[in-house]
Amino acid sequence: MDVLEIGKLTERHAGGGSALVGLLQEVQRREGFLPRMTLRRLARKLDVPLSRLYALATFYRAFSLVPTGRHRISVCLGTACHVRGGQALLNRLEHLLAVKAGDTTADGRFTLQTVRCVGCCSLGPVVKVDQETLARVRQDKLAGILARYRTNGATPGPDGPHH
Length: 163
Known about the structure:
It is a single chain. The chain is α+β, with helices and mostly antiparallel strands and 163 residues long. The protein folds into two domains: 3-59, no CATH class; 71-152, Glutaredoxin. Helices cover 45% and strands 11% of the residues. It contains seven helices and four strands; from the N terminus they run H-H-H-H-E-H-H-E-E-E-H. It has helices spanning 3-12, 18-31, 36-46, 50-59, 79-83, 86-97, 142-152; strands at residues 71-76, 110-115, 127-129, 132-134. Strands 2-1-3-4 form a four-stranded mixed beta sheet, covered by helices on one side.
């Protein structure tokens, strides 16, 4: 983000410390991650220590300091999802995408990550792709789910987004 964009962004997110998270969320949405140069420019513009922005960026798992894939896949490994096969889903996705959890595919399309809970335990095992929550996911459905995101982004299947 250039200096002009930073100025416009900070005007919309005035309000001190509580507005910093919202500001970082908007940068993350626009850029796909929190670029170092953008954080430096924000710190200067807001007259806050750069360390404060980094503290927020590293505290919240939703933020990334490195570029992520076009689509973020989150596999829930919370207790309910784990006992229903969450780890097996993660293993299968690692195989299908040829990456380990925490990494991004070579083509930049997917970033695979784990989460401890997405808050819908009765629907486990759960996988989120971007903002789409997929419930009761089975290993044999993963290739088809990935194919939908490889071709044209997110296109819900015949049963809607819950597979």
